[in-house]
Design a protein that fits this description.
The protein is of the alpha/beta class. The protein has three helices and 13 strands. It has a seven-stranded mixed β-sheet with strand order 1-2-7-8-6-4-5, with helices on one face. Helix 1 crosses helix 2. The chain is globular, with a radius of gyration of 17 Å. The chain starts with a strand and ends in an 8-residue tail after the last helix.
C-alpha cells in the first residue's frame, strides 16, 4: 500500500496478484488515514460513474457498468438488510479518469497501465489487476472520493455470460465481476483481510493483520487478496464483511 498526503489523505490500495472468494474470513481490516483514523463515507449513498470504455477493450461501457452494478448489489442493503449502504451506477458522456474531481470514477485502461489522473505521472506494477484510490480527509477519515482503475493492458476480463475482453490470446483472463466485488470493498474503506508478506501489527499494536499463508480456505472471503482457485459463481460476502457493513454503515443510523 502507498499513501501520499496532498492536503487531503490520499490512500492507494493495490490488488497485486488476484482475488479469491469463499466462506468467512479471519477478520475485516479497515483502511486507516495517515492520521490513523479508519476511513469511511459520511453518507451511505455512494454514486459510481463508469467512464467511456475504449473501443479496443472489446466490451462496452454498458457491459462494465452491469458488472459493477451486480458487484455493488453484493455490498448493498438489498443483499445485507442490516446496512444502509446503497450504490448507484451511472455512465458519463466523457472520460474522466482518476483525477480528484468529486466523481467516483471507474476507468478501464487499455493503452498503458499508468495513472489516468492527468496531474499524476506514474505507471503501475503490471501484476496489479486493478488499483483503487481512496481519498479522505486526514482529520476525521471521511472519504470524499474513490476511483477504480482496471488493468486491461496486462489482463483480459470475462463477463458472467462468457464473453471476454479483447487482447492477446495468451493474456491471462480474470473474472470482471469478482474483481469489482473486491474493489468495492476498498471503496467502502476495507483493506485486504490478510497480508501476503506475513503477519502485520496494526498501528495501535492492539491487533494484527493475519498472514494469508496461515489462513484455512474456510477463512477466505471477498477481501482475501490472493487468487488460488477462481470462483465459478458470484461470491457471497463472508461473515466479517457483513459485520463491517452492519457496524460501520448500520441501517437507520449515521456511520461511525
Amino acid at each position: 500500500m502507498l499513501h501520499v498526503r496532498l492536503g487531503l489523505a490520499f490512500r492507494i490500495i493495490f490488488v497485486a496478484v488476484g482475488l479469491s472468494f469463499g466462506p468467512p474470513s479471519y477478520a475485516f481490516v479497515r483502511t486507516p488515514s495517515p492520521d490513523g483514523r479508519p476511513v469511511r463515507w459520511r453518507a451511505p449513498l455512494i454514486r459510481l460513474s463508469v467512464d467511456l470504455v475504449p473501443k479496443n477493450f472489446g466490451l462496452t461501457s454498458r457491459d462494465v457498468g452491469a458488472a459493477v452494478a451486480r458487484a455493488a448489489r453484493v455490498w448493498s442493503k438489498s443483499s445485507v438488510p442490516c446496512t444502509a449502504i446503497d450504490f448507484r451506477v451511472s455512465k458519463p458522456p466523457i472520460v474522466r479518469g482518476a483525477a480528484l474531481d468529486g466523481i467516483n470514477s471507474i476507468a478501464v485502461l487499455t493503452k498503458a497501465w499508468c495513472s489516468s489522473d492527468p496531474h499524476e505521472v506514474k505507471c503501475y506494477n503490471p501484476n496489479a489487476l486493478a488499483l483503487t484510490k481512496v481519498r479522505s480527509r486526514g482529520e476525521d477519515g471521511t472519504i470524499i472520493e474513490a476511483d477504480i482503475e482496471l488493468n486491461a493492458v496486462y489482463y483480459r476480463w470475462r463477463l458472467p455470460d462468457g464473453r471476454v475482453s479483447s487482447g492477446h490470446p495468451s493474456t491471462e483472463v480474470r473474472d470482471l465481476q469478482e474483481l469489482f466485488t473486491h474493489e468495492l470493498g476498498h471503496v467502502l474503506g476495507l483493506s485486504d483481510s490478510c497480508s501476503v508478506s506475513g503477519e502485520v501489527s496494526m498501528h495501535d499494536a492492539t491487533s494484527v493483520i493475519p498472514d494469508c499463508r496461515k489462513l484455512q480456505p474456510s477463512q477466505r472471503s471477498s477481501m482475501f487478496p490472493v487468487n488460488e482457485v477462481s470462483a465459478k459463481s458470484m461470491p457471497a460476502l463472508g461473515h466479517d464483511e457483513r459485520r463491517f457493513l452492519c457496524e460501520v454503515y448500520p441501517k437507520m443510523r449515521r456511520p461511525r
